[in-house]
């Protein structure tokens, strides 16, 4: 059972709830979400469905991916936002945690005294031994929800960090997930005022999607690593899909599986095979220097 609001927090919140918000307390549907956004770079591509593909031969064995954490609250009633995220495989190290100012020049919420990353202080935490990071925002005035800086809650990120591969890290799929365990679970406290009994924490880590990072030693789509993206790669991808669909061993390495998931939807399927084959046909009829990459082709 999820940890409920502490007694002290409840008293503080209850004491300040004297103003009115345009929120119907009878409406218990409150589902803010969290998400990650990664940046492209040398050897780093953002795939169609938001996953990251790292060609370690190009990006380097210790490739680093810049990532930002965003909070989407369409009802704009969050009073406290506490977010933790983890990379379970410590070969992908979470490091260089900063606030949003350095990267975007702004903050998602108007909180007194915060005008730079340095002002965030204890708001940002890194737990190196667990490969976990955390950020929190709390409105000092309990009478109202967090006040937005932009038009939406995700106009600015909550925090920014880097996901860096250790030297010698193997190719394959790595996840960065919002943390959903322990006493300090990811949570959001809304500021309802019409009925204090409706004041409940919500836990967006339960339904918010993490970030998939696929890493390989070859080009995206070059499943057999021969330096070309062609019908052979499409055939290999289709074979992998057929075996996976029959619950059989795909007989493919982690490097091959990462390269075959060309749209980044967390699975190797017939769509990936079709995309690779379509790209091969496209390459065969376009020999000029402005030819698209496979990723550009898939996203177009």
Topology:
Elements: H1 7-16, E1 33-38, E2 44-46, E3 52-55, H2 56-59, E4 64-72, E5 78-86, E6 92-98, H3 101-104, H4 117-120, E7 124-127, E8 132-138, E9 159-165, E10 172-178, E11 187-190, E12 211-216, H5 231-245, H6 254-260, H7 270-285, H8 294-299
Proportion in helices: 10-25%
Main beta-sheet annotation: 8 strands, mixed
Q: What class would the helix/strand composition place it in?
A: alpha+beta
Total number of β-strand segments? 12
Shape: elongated
- Number of helices in the DSSP assignment: 8
Distance between the termini: 44 Å
Summarize model confidence as the mean pLDDT: 88
Q: Which CATH class of the largest domain applies here?
A: Mainly Beta
- How much β-strand is present in the residues? 15-25%
CATH architecture of the largest domain: Sandwich
Radius of gyration: 22 Å
Unreliable sequence segments: 1-27
- How many domains comprise the coordinates? 2
CATH-derived topology of the largest domain = Immunoglobulin-like
- Which series of helices and strands comes N to C? HEEEHEEEHHEEEEEEHHHH
């Amino acid at each position: 059972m999820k940890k409920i609001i502490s007694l002290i927090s409840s008293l503080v919140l209850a004491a300040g709830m004297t103003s009115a918000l345009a929120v119907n307390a009878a409406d218990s549907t409150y589902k803010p979400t969290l998400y990650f956004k990664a940046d492209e770079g040398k050897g780093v591509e953002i795939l169609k469905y938001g996953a990251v593909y790292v060609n370690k031969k190009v990006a380097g064995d210790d490739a680093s991916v810049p990532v930002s954490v965003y909070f989407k609250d369409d009802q704009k009633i969050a009073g406290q936002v506490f977010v933790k995220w983890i990379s379970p495989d410590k070969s992908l190290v979470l490091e260089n945690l900063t606030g949003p100012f350095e990267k975007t020049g702004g903050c998602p919420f108007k909180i007194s005294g915060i005008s730079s990353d340095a002002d965030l202080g204890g708001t940002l935490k890194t737990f190196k031994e667990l490969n976990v990071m955390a950020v929190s925002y709390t409105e000092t005035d309990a009478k109202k929800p967090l006040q937005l800086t932009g038009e939406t809650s995700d106009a600015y990120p909550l925090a920014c960090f880097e996901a860096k591969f250790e030297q010698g890290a193997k190719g394959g799929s790595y996840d960065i997930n919002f943390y959903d365990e322990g006493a300090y679970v990811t949570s959001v406290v809304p500021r309802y005022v019409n009925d204090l009994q409706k004041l409940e924490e919500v836990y967006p880590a339960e339904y918010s999607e993490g970030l998939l990072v696929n890493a390989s030693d070859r080009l995206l789509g070059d499943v057999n690593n021969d330096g070309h993206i062609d019908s052979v790669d499409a055939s290999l991808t289709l074979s992998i899909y057929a075996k996976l669909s029959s619950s059989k061993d795909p007989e493919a390495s982690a490097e091959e599986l990462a390269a075959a998931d060309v749209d980044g939807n967390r699975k190797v399927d017939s769509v990936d095979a079709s995309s690779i084959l379509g790209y091969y046909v496209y390459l065969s009829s376009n020999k000029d220097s402005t030819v698209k990459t496979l990723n550009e082709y898939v996203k177009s």
